Amino acid sequence: MTSWNFEQLITTSQQEIASAENLQVLESFRIKYLGKKGLVAEIYGSLTQASPQEKPLIGKGANDLRSQVTEAIASKKQELQTMQTKKKAGLDAVDVTIPGVFQELGHAHILSQTTRDICAIFEKLGFAIFEGPEIETEFNNFTALNIPIDHPSRDAFDTFYLEQKDPGAKDRNLLLRSQTSPAQIRVMQNHKPPLAVVSPGKVYRPDAVDASHSFMFHQIEGLLVDEDIKFADLKGLLTAFCKRFFGENIKMRFRPHFFPFTEPSAEVDISCYICGGKGCSTCGRKGWLEILGCGMVHPKVFEAVKYPKGKYEGLAFGMGVERIAMLKHGIHDIRLFFENDIRFLKQF
Ligand SMILES: [Zn+2]
């Protein structure tokens, strides 16, 4: 009397089929169960010796086993074929004759390049680089720089104030620096002369954005302090800088001007390097380009940083990085620097 444990046979067959790692192994299981001399055929064959009571049970079990094995093999076959196709496609995708994907190499932004070029010239002249914070105290940004308490630049319309903790004590208010000059104050508060620093960085003013204004722009500030510094040193230094930056053939002129933190003060023009001073659209037909402000450090500034009275003299200068870049490269709209238009940025 043959008895078959169909439950066990179905479980084993399912496990075997699931474990088949390729189509050949799967085919061997198909033959084992469904082949002419396979298990299902053997079970049907045993029916002739089965009792009338057993026959329907064995018949049903054999049918179940056959259909479940058939189904499992079909689905496993599809899975293995899909895997094989993917593998083949994957291998074919590596076509060594296809040109590589070109990764474009970026470069520093035109303003970073300009800042770097300007600072590099002063570094060669012995200046150190100092970058102050963008959040400053009202004292460093205005008071220490001899800017009177009622000066219009201190107005909230001209400066971004951050906190008004104590409206009565203006000097303790925090603001986004409106110029890089407070970096000079920080240097002098922490170092004794002789000192020579240039300080590049972002500054902020609540200006409406147009072709020549931005609420954020960049400045570079310079300061040199020692015991015997003359206006001639300032002229010599800035002449050396302008000739190295704009070219040996440019002419320079110093025009008297007013800044609260320097006395005397001057604005510096260079002869237009495009038209050579004849007049063109870049220089507005004047032949001259205004490029920076400068002067001898005001005694009140030394007083604010507690330097001994009358002991030191200093020279200071400041320039706008956007303005210099615009003049040097013939750019007519400041907004182009900040719009991240790659077609513009790629040109420099
Ligand atoms: Zn010109």
Account of the protein in words:
- With 348 residues, the protein is of the alpha+beta class.
- The protein folds into two domains: 6-93; 110-345, Bira Bifunctional Protein, Domain 2 (BirA Bifunctional Protein, domain 2, 2-Layer Sandwich).
- Helix content is 39%, strand content 20%.
- The chain has helices spanning 6-19, 23-34, 39-46, 54-93, 110-124, 138-141, 182-190, 231-246, 299-304, 321-329, 342-345, and strands at 128-129, 135-137, 161-163, 174-176, 195-204, 216-226, 252-259, 262-271, 288-297, 313-320.
- The strands form two sheets. Strands 1-5-6-10-9-8-7 form a seven-stranded mixed sheet, with helices on both faces. Strands 2-4-3 form a three-stranded antiparallel sheet.
- Strand 7 and strand 8 (262-271) form a beta hairpin.
- Helix 1 (6-19) runs parallel beside helix 4 (54-93), helix 2 (23-34) runs antiparallel to helix 4 and helix 5 (110-124) crosses helix 10 (321-329).
- The mean pLDDT is 90.
- Bound molecules: zinc ion.
- Residues 272, 274-275, 279-280, 282-283, 287 line the site of zinc ion (ZN).
Order of helices and strands: HHHHHEEHEEHEEHEEEHEHH
Gyration radius, in Å: 42 Å
- CATH class bucket of the largest domain: Alpha Beta
How many distinct domains? 2
Number of strands: 10
Helix-and-strand structural type: alpha+beta
CATH architecture of the largest domain: 2-Layer Sandwich
What name goes with the CATH superfamily of the largest domain?
Bira Bifunctional Protein, Domain 2
Placed side by side, the strands forming the largest sheet appear as 1-5-6-10-9-8-7
Q: Low-confidence spans: pLDDT under 50, at least 5 residues?
A: none
Characterize the biggest β-sheet: 7 strands, mixed
